[in-house]
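--- STAGE predict ---
source: upstream dedup step, 1 unique chain passed
mode: sequence only
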Amino acid sequence: MAPLSSLRRQHVFSDKVATLLCAAVFITLAGSAFSQQPQPVQMPPPAQGPTPPPSWQQGRGTEQVNSPLAPHSAPLTAKKAEDIPVNKIKVAPGFEVSLWASGMPNARSMTLGEKGTVFVGTRLVGRVYAVTEKDGKREVKTIAQGLHRPNGVAFKDGALYVAELGRVIRYDDIENRLDNPPEPKIIYSDLPKDEPHGWKFIAFGPDGNLYVPIGAPCNICEPSDAHAQIRRIKPDGSGGEVIARGVRNTVGFDWHPQTKELWFTDNGRDWLTDEQPGDELNRVSRPGLHFGFPVCHAGNVLDPEFGKGKDCSAYEPPVLDLGPHVAALGMRFYTGDMVPAEHKNSILIALHGSWNRSQKSGFKVMQAVLQEKGAPLYKVFAEGWLEGEQFWGRPVDVQVMKDGCVLVSDDWNGAIYRISHKR
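--- STAGE serialize ---
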């Protein structure tokens, strides 16, 4: 019989062997199990193809590939009042201009509240401003921020409607809550979310409906059934209806004070020539009209791709050619009593100014005086923002005030000018 010490040594040795054997089995099994688990998929590196061009380059011909023309990058800050050279603005005879408000980065579309508040939307900074006036002094308040392309603003029954890229929201009782705005209510969200031409101008028509345009998501393309149109909806967001098609990009419209017909500006396509096509002033004489995009531009220019084999006579022609690449935006019928009778019911149009033209055009406010017969008389109402080939301001929208004066917004300077008739 082996000594006890020897048995103990054998037992310890056996325990060590068993432990090592167990560990080996565990490692083997674990390795086998691990090898049976799904392994991360090794994705191939992304294709190194060409980067898609920005949307504004779409539609360029081969001769334009190296063109230096490009959209003007808007400032995201506002100039100080003392740095805005209002004295350079020249207005029509009998009128005068002054700086009405400043300090609003990217100030664009305007609407007027029942108590005289001027609400101002923006395209790039996500804010909505409210400008109030008391004892001749004006105060600018930011009543909303963090929104997505809140360009369009409209007012009805005490509520402010704001059009973002993909929806329309409403701020109730807003003029009584400028210092403590309510949470907005979403009233309409059935809108495409394309960034190109996705910012909107909105307004209430004489029928009580809210009109919402949807631009083409491109420079030139065949739009879907949800694009290149003007819709109208009820104030609660119901009853959506398309009233005009073939509209490339309207950022301004109004209704004739007497006929109640809708008139709108429309931006022409880019990358044809310096002189073609012109922007348009259009009239919706009845719902359902098609205004030509993408087949026909400015009433007489067939598109080289989408117009092949087609005829411009099949589409509604513009009332007026506003000039090539001038970026006609906000427009209003003048209904005030401040000016002489010949200005009554004329149309004021803000030309934001060209980028797709070797010699700049636009950068002014124009006036279209309607005639009993023939095209409107088209003339300059305010200019001076463009000096040679350099511009220092860009008109965006016009708003007729209760006292008859006209406000003009300028997103380049973050300001609003007041044009009034000398008494």
